[in-house]
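STRUCTURE:
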């Protein structure tokens, strides 16, 4: 008689765990694009939108097999001068969208594969504090080109 009760309790516990995981949509990365440098050998910049889902998360890093180093940066205005500085991570609160956009937060791509040209794409892997990785293909544009996504800002 004890076995059916134990099995029932275990089944309920398992169901509760799987339902909680299914109920919390995971973060997403959208509208990723890369502006290539005007001069070969200089860094490129990547822009994208992070959606926090129901749980939220923290972006720790971005990497790519076709880029030597990728750093997260933030541009700020200080005493009338634009300054860029590295950031270690970016919080993505639950239910919110965080923009990495020109003039604000962005990713700097150092040592980009020279075969990446305007109109091609580059795979970017986003690593989050939760342990989750999200890979997306980012479209590439030439230096000075228009952003490929009109909705480059959170709604």
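SEQUENCE:
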């Amino acid at each position: 008689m004890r076995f059916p009760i134990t099995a029932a309790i275990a089944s309920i516990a398992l169901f509760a765990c799987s339902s909680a995981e299914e109920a919390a949509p995971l973060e997403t990365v959208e509208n990723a694009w890369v502006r290539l440098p005007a001069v070969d050998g200089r860094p490129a910049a990547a822009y994208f939108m992070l959606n926090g889902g129901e749980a939220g998360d923290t972006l720790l890093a971005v990497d790519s097999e076709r880029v030597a180093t990728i750093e997260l940066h933030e541009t700020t205005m200080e005493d009338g001068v634009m300054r860029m500085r590295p950031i270690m991570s970016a919080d993505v609160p639950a239910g919110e969208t965080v923009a990495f956009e020109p003039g604000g937060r962005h990713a700097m791509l150092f040592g980009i594969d020279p075969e990446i040209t305007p109109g091609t794409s580059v795979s970017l892997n986003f690593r989050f504090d939760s342990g989750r990785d999200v890979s997306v293909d980012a479209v590439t544009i030439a230096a000075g080109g228009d952003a490929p996504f009109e909705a480059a800002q959170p709604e």
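REMARK: The chain has one domain: 25-141.
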